[in-house]
Design goal:
CATH topology of the largest domain: Immunoglobulin-like
Structural class: alpha+beta
Helix content: 10-25%
Radius of gyration: 23 Å
Number of helices: 8
Distance between the termini: 39 Å
């Protein structure tokens, strides 16, 4: 996809507000909390900015009328943009949906030490499934279990880094966006010297020595040993944004599966089991979840005034999650709230959608990255420039913006959607909720 070159949009994209700090919208307007003062300030500053873009800026946004001569970015907006959260989420700002009573990362330090939740005491057992055994020559168990020092020895030769948005299967907003670093799981699997009857891998982490709290996920062995379609490898992750993985983020070591939702990226990893089992045995199967559904592409708003002045243009900013099918465009549509819509078009495929603008890569990536730079060798980034050669990056996020036309007094419903690289519009091709969030967001707007 061609990178946008409009300089004004580039300035706005320096550090556009991250979704992690804002409210994540539900699909019905009545469930939305009122925006806090920070969000209200962002709305107002963004409004002034878009009004100052002039004809060229309005044309670039694809939405709207000639607003007069172009203007430089207002100083007050520039100052506000510098204070907004960056593209990558600081590790401490990730949302936490961890399981466990008590949460493993909240245990006293002496207990963490005793159960291997520190880098000094962590060990990983890699064994054959006793019920459906895979044939391996050298299980990593007991004194041969992999410790953190051994993992770091593998990292000297095999470490990889990649950008990934971490999302829960049943939540409509991401938990955070980061650069994850680790050793491909296959490097450890090969250490066990498997020979036959190996069809899947399942794995779990520490959950309070309580069998009822055990939470595990699984993958086909083919995905562990090989990276299809240009995907990064499944990793034993020990760093996030260049920093050691802390307990709340799943440290000292967790699994990270690039193309999947968070339940596949088990925290506080302690066991990997090589099995001849032919099917998934994830704990997340409970609750009718689709445990094989990869990340979907969808859009949502970040800032949109709930009350606007009639006749005045309305600025909107948002984000899109770039799923396994990529992203070609973000579109928006606002209509009278009482407008009837044909029952046979429940996904609004025939609506008059208009293209919004996807913002270019930021000048500063943030996320508390060391020296504010993308770590050397990060997959998906040019090693010389430190920039992504394609944008938006798959399995990540991108910000978008639009300027809506002046509205007559009344009530309206705003909707946004994505169109993936196959030309398929959200919520298709996989509209089912238990296979990942993809519902078209609806925001209620009143013009007075």
């Amino acid at each position: 996809m061609t990178r946008m070159t409009d300089p004004s949009l580039g300035r706005l994209a320096v550090e556009l507000l991250s979704w992690d700090r804002l409210h994540c919208h539900e699909t019905r307007a009545e469930t939305m909390p009122k925006p806090d003062p920070f969000v209200a300030e962002h709305d107002e500053l963004t409004r002034r900015y878009f009004l100052g873009l002039g004809a060229a800026g309005a044309a670039a946004l694809g939405f709207l009328p000639q607003l007069g001569s172009a203007a430089e970015l207002p100083a007050e907006l520039r100052q506000a943009v510098e204070q907004l959260e960056p593209y990558f989420t600081p590790p401490d700002d990730f949302r936490d949906v961890s399981r466990g009573k008590p949460l493993p990362h909240s245990l006293p330090e002496d207990k963490k030490t005793a159960v291997g939740l520190t880098r000094e005491t962590w060990k990983l057992q890699v064994v054959s499934d006793p019920e459906n055994p895979a044939k391996i020559k050298s299980p990593l168990s007991g004194e041969k279990a992999l410790d953190f020092a051994g993992l770091m020895e593998l990292a000297e030769k095999h470490a990889v880094r990649f950008a990934k948005v971490m999302t829960c299967l049943n939540i409509g907003c991401p938990l955070g966006m980061g650069i994850w670093e680790g050793v491909p799981l296959r490097e450890v699997v090969w250490r066990t010297q498997p020979t036959e009857n190996l069809r899947r891998v399942f794995y779990w982490g520490y959950h309070n020595d309580d069998p009822k709290q055990l939470f595990q996920s699984s993958l086909p062995i083919g995905r562990v040993l090989e990276d299809p379609y240009g995907l990064p490898p499944v990793i034993l992750c020990y760093k996030l944004n260049g920093q050691w993985l802390d307990g709340e983020r799943g440290g000292p070591v967790r699994v990270v599966v690039p193309e999947h939702y968070g339940f596949k990226s088990i925290k506080w990893l302690t066991h990997v089991v090589l099995t001849n089992l032919a099917h998934a045995n994830d704990t997340y199967i409970d609750g009718n979840n689709d445990v094989d559904s990869p990340l979907k592409t969808f859009a949502a708003t970040l800032s949109l005034p709930r009350e606007v002045k009639a006749g005045g243009p309305v600025p909107v900013t948002g984000y899109a999650q770039v799923g396994i099918s990529g992203l070609s465009k973000v579109q928006a549509w606002i209509a009278p709230a009482n407008e009837d819509w044909p029952a046979d078009d429940k996904h609004f495929a025939k609506a008059p959608w208009r293209d919004a603008a996807m913002l270019p890569p930021p000048k500063r990536w943030g996320g508390n990255l060391p020296e504010e730079r993308i770590p050397s060798g990060t997959l998906g980034f040019d090693p010389k420039t430190g920039e992504p050669p394609t944008w938006p990056m798959r399995l990540s996020k991108v910000h978008w913006a639009a300027l809506l036309p002046g509205l007559s007094a009344g009530e309206y419903t705003f909707r946004c959607r994505t169109v993936d690289e196959n030309g398929i519009a959200q919520p298709m091709p996989r509209p089912f909720r238990k296979g990942g969030h993809s519902a078209i967001e609806e925001v209620h707007v009143v013009a007075k």
